[in-house]
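Example 3.2
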Amino acid sequence: MRENPLVLHVLGARPNFVKAAPVVRALDEIGVRQGIIHTGQHYDALMSDVFFADLGLPEPVANLGVGSGSHAKQTAALLVGLEDVVLEHRPSLVVVYGDVNSTLAAILVCAKLHIPTAHVEAGLRSFDREMPEEVNRVVTDALSDILFATSPEALSYLAREGADPERVHLVGNPMIDSLFSALPKLDPAPVQERLGVSGRYAVATLHRPANVDDPESARELVEAVLAVAERVPVVVPLHPRGRQRLADAGLMDRENLKIIDPLGYVDFLSLVRGAALVVTDSGGVQEETTMLGVPCLTVRPNTERPITVTHGTNRLVTPAGLPAAAEKALADGSATPSGELPPLWDGAAGPRIARVIAAWLRGDNLSPAAQGRNRQS
């Protein structure tokens, strides 16, 4: 292993920033040299730049600015851009997060260049290969040298796929670290006042391809959201992805429905903290509502985060079942997680990850194969 090793973090979308911030902070505290590659997969300033400020992330060493496009075009641009940056910096380890195209591209680039990698949020599975994210998860875990799992079921999924147990570490959820850090700043009142929202309200986030790419699916989803808006005001911070499709399907400002631009991290969680209900198809929001005790209805047939259903406030619904489920959730009132919170979701995942990475960089307790790759870096 070279002296003064370098760790690079590849971040492409909102959830990546939230998960990476505690890891970057913990590595900085123990003196590990590091840098961030911002791929620009989320190119809207409200979906990326503001998160650097809200989460205290340092300026990236590179910003690829790949923007949007089809999966093939976006991944191709990421492969080319990431290869150039990785070859320039020659890191000892590249850390990737979640399941976006930036994650997949970084893993492929590093595998071909024989640069070791670590995956934060390894082992999550929806078992739905029609989800692009599921393909990204499976490939990323197969090629990563270090696998950081956020929940116990992820360990069993990785074992079933033949992952070497020495590569796998149950560390908890760094997204929850970020939420814990932000809690003192999560005041719903200023955001509600700015948006003109008062009393009980719901928040909806909608962007999954299965929900917004097909016109008929988008129409069914919009009709369901409009039905919820007949029961309670709904605020929709609208993701750039699918914006036009949802607008074409009839999602627009009307009585009890407010369409707004994406919010920064603190503002969004403040809005969610004050909500009576959240409707989403996002993965991370399922986790955040679990910790905040806000009822969450996830408009998907499956989730790669089943622990938010068994230990949290989350429930899977179809578009057709959404209005009735929303009415029940609103009648039940504020939710509290059932039983204990998920194990190791305690705000200390970042330091756990940092300790494993630091030991790996030193070559401690590695298998012979891993030691060989570490010495080559």
